[in-house]
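Exercise 3.2. Students should predict the tertiary structure of the chain below and write it as structure tokens, then compare their answer with the key that follows.

Predict this chain's 3D structure.
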Amino acid sequence: MSHFLVLIIVLINVAYLIVVERKWLGIIQLRQGPNKVGFKGLAQPLADGVKLFTKEVCWGFSGSGYIYFLGPFICFFLSYGAWVIFPSFFTINPTELGVLFIICVSRRHVFGTFLVGWSVDSSYSSLGAMRRVAQRISYEVVFRTLLLCPLLVLGSYSFVIFRLSYFPLVVLMFEVFLLWLIVVLAELNRAPFDFVEGESELVSGYTVEYGGVGFALIALAEYGNIYFIRIVISVLFGRVFLGRFLRNILLSFEMVIFCLLIIRIRGRMPRYRYDLLMAVCWKKLLPLRLLILMYYFLLLSI
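Answer key:
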């Protein structure tokens, strides 16, 4: 029951995160965001949900209907399945291997993305899916290597244990925190690394043939990943010595700040080049990450 309640709360937060992004981008670009539905556009998530889930569902004649729906469902299921190990003090059965669970779940996201792009038999969708899969696999290597540094310091795989720690690792591992933000932007397909949705190249990438329920599930999965990664960053790098209630308030505040930060990056920075992105991953970030990991390993072994 507690996990179901967490899922409902996360879905509501993700729906309003999409509206906050649209409003914040409007402010950055000196234009109006959603402001017609309800007071100041607050009912926009409800209107978007009704519109998407009531639209007619159709797919190409050469595509497979079963796989057409299977791809978005896998993306949605994997995105919100990670919330089973939600790092709350009120978790009934907190798992001791939460970090390993996240790594295992995140590896499966590429299967949903591949099915979404391949099932509709479209060149734009297939090419967008291949870009997304290659980008995610490449930066996931750096992502997991970065994750080892906080694990070496804290000596645990449990997010609940992480929250019980008092010292904020952002002070001790500031360089790791900066690299983490760059890798997260590429991992989540966010600007300036959103090459799947290159309007001049691939239109909307692997989601170009999707509408209605399929598009809604893919959008919820994408923003659900953003929301979960924000809470992981807050738990790993943003702990301070406070009471339980104040810690929960601070965790929520940090998540909001991180979400606004990545939205601001999208509104301010141009799109990068795909070949340069992959070169940065394998030629610069990965060797640098290995050197930092060796440094912390030697430092802690002394």
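Discussion points: The chain has a mean pLDDT of 82. The chain has one domain: 51-301.
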